Amino acid sequence: MDGKRRTFLKTSTAIATTAGAGSLGGFPYFFVKDAGAQSTPWVKKGDKIKVGVLFSLTGALAVVETDSNQVVQFAIDKINKAGGIAGMQVEPVIIDAKSDIKVFSEKISQLILKDRVIATFGGYTSASRRAMAPVVMARDHLLYYPTCYEGRECTQNIVNTGPLANQHSQDLIPFMVKSFGKKTYFVGSNYIWPKESNKNAKVWLEKVGGELLGEEYVELGGSDFSSIFNKIRQTKPDFIFSTVVGDSDIALHKQFKQEGFKVDKMPIAALTTGEIETRAMGAEFGAGHFLSAPYFQTLDTPTNKKFVEEYLASKYGKGGVTHYNMEETYLSVWAFKYAFEKALAKAGSVEAITPRMIRDVTPGIRIEDDVSPEGLVYFDETCHLYMKPKIGQCQANGQFKIVKAADAHIAPDPFVIYPERGVCKFDGLHTKDGKVLKNVL
Prior knowledge:
Blueprint: H1 3-20, E1 49-55, H2 62-81, E2 90-96, H3 101-113, E3 119-122, H4 126-138, E4 143-145, E5 158-160, H5 169-180, E6 183-189, H6 192-207, E7 211-218, H7 226-235, E8 239-243, H8 246-258, E9 268-270, H9 275-281, H10 283-286, E10 290-293, H11 302-313, H12 324-347, H13 355-360, E11 366-367, E12 377-379, E13 385-386, E14 390-394, E15 400-405, E16 423-425, E17 428-430, E18 436-437
Parallel strand pairs: 1-2, 1-3, 3-4, 4-5, 6-7, 6-8, 8-9, 9-10
Antiparallel strand pairs: 10-14, 11-12, 12-13, 14-15, 16-17, 17-18
Helix pairs in contact: 1-3, 1-4, 2-12, 3-4, 5-6, 8-9
């Protein structure tokens, strides 16, 4: 290995670890294109198209990320059986991130530099995304981040297929206030996504005259909510707003019932508790609570029925359910397929296609309702999706009844509560003073 690459590996890992841990509360961070990008083609005609798959198959986040890993393989198999992409088969390079931020940082470097993947699908938490992002940006590479996130970023190397806050909690908070009352208590996991999501939720809460009684966070993987529930018992909110993830989410819902709280009197309204978490905890612990998401397994469309049937019957569907996060991951693979084909038409040969080129042709791509289980979605110029938010209430069988759905697609807005910072566009963050800032984290 030459000295230049050795230096990059050491430096990029350090930067990514800092961004994924100690620096998560601040902004902005700016990254520039690495001048040492390799000239070797990422894909050669007649070879396979290699993509990275970097999710947690062990640890506290595996309860969700295992399904993301599985559905990527399911989608790739489906595409390969239909002839692949531009006549080439797609080959996944699968790595277990072990629910460890440092592993995300280290292994994204390995996927790019050693395995020579042209894109990576990975991450469930914003901490993992921020660990991977500096490496991806420094190499001018491509990451598909396939779940909800808080926004407040404007990047040129990431394609996002999950909802932003204005497509997520902006409908949920007013719905809960109208349905149950104005007083709420926020409970979240202790990292950037819950904290930033709660900043957004406070804005929506204030607009509808709501009252925040308290705000508490537990460490990722934490399972003891007794002290928090003591405070909730004392303050008596009308509902709990949860941004707790992974194994902690399961513990939260179990202890809610064990503490004797009544779901009809004080339900939990969540951004993460879907079919997979409910199956893991037991339907009796999820029944009655609410989730905001663009997708539910119960969506009554021909495409979704076929998707659910095929996935659960496949070797990948051992989880027994489909859910919002894995559906968003499924969409990311199709987004990659369509963008690769579009890039090929522009480049003229597969050897000329770069990771950045795939990102740059993504705006405007549509995933039609005959492919997308949640219905038509399409990318704006910032590589976020227009989608239709929905709210579901968990039933006794662990499935969700959709109680509210948007009539029209909602435009993504990563800076919805930060208008003073500028507007995110295709080429960067356009600030009020006329500057264009690249890759803002």
